[in-house]
Specification:
Elements: E1 9-10, E2 16-17, E3 26-31, H1 38-45, E4 55-57, E5 63-65, E6 72-73, H2 79-84, E7 85-90, H3 102-118, H4 130-135, E8 142-143, H5 155-159, H6 162-175, E9 178-181, E10 184-187, H7 206-217, H8 231-243, H9 254-260
Parallel strand pairs: 1-5, 3-7, 3-8, 4-7
Antiparallel strand pairs: 2-6, 4-5, 9-10
Length: about 260
């Protein structure tokens, strides 16, 4: 049983069940309740807090591995669910609706698609019925933490988007496409982020903040995360594009987004 090649950071947690006695056929998405990095989340799972997840996604879209897929994490307050599910914690705001960044959301979709492909999950099926989810009725193979405990997890932001997440993942699964990922295989994903640039395209807003955060995280600049696509952001984007052998036009379009969100 393999792990995802999309992982950027590994920090194994001692808090997990060794092995599984059920095949992986379920996805359970959680919210962290904090816009943290994957490194910070790894330290939490390595502490005396008896919790973990298989994967975590930071605010910048980077992916951490904390429990191998061959083992069941302590995530959902329910052994039977964790025994059959790959669990994913996603960095989020600390208050309702516990929103996540666009970078984290897009990374979640490609990670789930990768998990499904490797584990033979042909379709991702969501139901708004708790009875369908906990009993895996009508093909439902997505569960949420609130199904098993008195919690709001994964927060209304992600909970209300589970149908959209399933549709996006299934689009990837249906495509059957493979693209290069650092010399290996990376799951194909459809990106719908807006075009950004200093001029001629969108130049302010939350998406620009996401780009600034990602560029800072990958050491392509020390940008003020102000949501303004100024000269410093333009130069950092061009530097990043050069490193990925893209056209150095300073436009954060489809190809630049794809590499930023890897």
């Amino acid at each position: 049983m393999s792990n995802s090649v999309l992982v950027d950071h590994i920090h194994y947690s001692p808090h997990h069940y060794y092995g599984r006695n059920h095949k992986i056929d379920t996805i359970t998405i959680h919210c962290v309740v904090g816009q943290c990095s994957i490194e910070s989340l790894g330290l939490v799972f390595d502490s005396n807090i008896e919790a973990s997840s298989n994967y975590g996604i930071g605010y910048d879209g980077r992916i951490g591995l904390y429990v191998d897929e061959s083992n069941a994490a302590w995530t959902s307050s329910n052994y039977a669910n964790d025994n059959r599910a790959v669990t994913i914690e996603v960095a989020s705001d600390t208050c309702n609706p516990y929103a996540v960044t666009d970078a984290a959301y897009n990374a979640l979709i490609i990670l789930v698609a990768d998990i499904c492909k490797r584990n033979g999950i042909k379709r991702l099926i969501w139901s708004t019925s708790k009875n369908d989810r906990v009993n895996h009725l009508n093909g439902c193979n997505i569960t949420v933490h609130r199904d098993f405990d008195n919690k709001s997890c994964p927060g209304d932001y992600l909970y209300n988007r589970h149908g959209q997440i399933a549709a996006a993942v299934n689009k990837i699964l249906d495509s059957g496409d493979d693209v290069e990922y650092d010399g290996g295989q990376k799951i194909y994903f459809d990106i719908s982020m807006p075009y950004l640039a200093k001029s001629g395209y969108i130049s302010t807003g939350e998406e620009v903040k996401t780009v600034q955060l990602l560029l800072n995280a990958m050491n392509y600049g020390d940008l003020e995360v102000d949501g303004i696509f100024g000269s410093a952001t333009d130069q950092a984007v061009k530097k990043f594009q050069k490193s990925r052998e893209l056209d150095q036009d300073g436009i954060v379009g489809r190809d630049t987004w794809r590499y930023l969100l890897k």
